[in-house]
C-alpha cells in the first residue's frame, strides 16, 4: 500500500484514539469534600484553591424543621449567630469561579432536625432558598453568595418527608436573580437502602438527586477491609449504582482517625477498590470526610491521578 493510501487509515486511527482519550477524560472521577467542621482546616477559598476538589459541602445546617429556628454551625471558622460568617460568601464565589460546586450540607451526625409534614418540608425549602440559594432574605448567613445546591446528610430525624423536601427544592431551579439550577446531593450510609433516604424508594428513589456520595465507613458490613477484600463493598456499590441518581460517589474517611472504621489505604484504593467501582457508568469519583483530615494526610493528592 502506498503512503497516500495509508493516510486515511492513519487519520481514522488518530481520530479514534482522540475520541477514546476524550471518553476517558469524561469518565474521570472527581473529589467531593466536606468543609466547615474544624477551624484548623483553612478557609473555604484555600480549600478550593488547592485544585483537588470538584465539590465542596459546607457543613452543617444542623437544626431545622419541626418548628425549630434553623441553625448553621461552622465550628471554629465563624459564628453565624453573630452574623460573623457573611464573609464566607466571597469564598463561595471564588470557588465557583474555579468551576467548583458549593453545596450547603444539612443534617449531620449530631443535630436536631426532621420534618413533620409536607408543609414543614415546604417551609424548610423556602428557608434554604431565601437564605442560601437564589432568594433575597436580608439575613443570609453566608452573605449574598448563591450556593449551587443542598446536600442531604440525614443521619437522624426519621425517614418521613425528605422526598417532599427534595421536590420543593427542585421547584426553585431556574428561579431567582441568577436563575440557576438547584443541584441536590445526598450522603446515605452504605447499607442498602438507607434508613432515612431510602434507595429505589424514598427520597433517593425520586430521581431528583444529581450526586449521591455513599458513606462506606462506620458500616463494617459493606466496607472494604484488608482481610475481607472488596466483596462486601462491591455488592453494596452495585445496589447503590442502580438508584435513579445521575452520579454515585464512593465516600471514605481521609484519615484513619476521621472515622471509627472504613479507612482505605491509598494504595489499596487505587489497586483494588477503584477498578471495581469505576466499572459503573454512574461512577462520579470519591467523597472524603473531611478537608481537615485530607489536609493532614494528603489523601486526595495521592489518589486524584487515578480517579
Main sheet attributes: strand count, strand direction, barrel closure:
8 strands, parallel, barrel
CATH architecture: Alpha-Beta Barrel
CATH topology: TIM Barrel
Q: Shape, please?
A: globular
Annotation, overall tally of beta strands: 10
Structural category is: alpha/beta
Radius of gyration from CA coordinates? 21 Å
Main β-sheet, spatial strand arrangement: 1-2-4-6-7-8-9-10
The ordered H/E elements are HEHEEHEEHEHEEHEHEHH
Instruction: Work out the helicity level.
Output: 25-40%
Q: Please state the average pLDDT score.
A: 92
Q: Specify the number of helices.
A: 9
**Going by CATH, what is the homologous superfamily?**
Glycosidases
Number of domains: 1
> Which parts are unreliable, with pLDDT below 50 for 5 consecutive residues or more?
1-26
Reading off the top of the CATH hierarchy, the class is best stated as Alpha Beta
What percentage of the residues does DSSP assign to strands (E)? 15-25%
Distance between the termini: 42 Å
Family: Belongs to the glycosyl hydrolase 18 family.
EC number: 3.2.1.14
Domain GH18: 29-307
Enzyme class: hydrolase
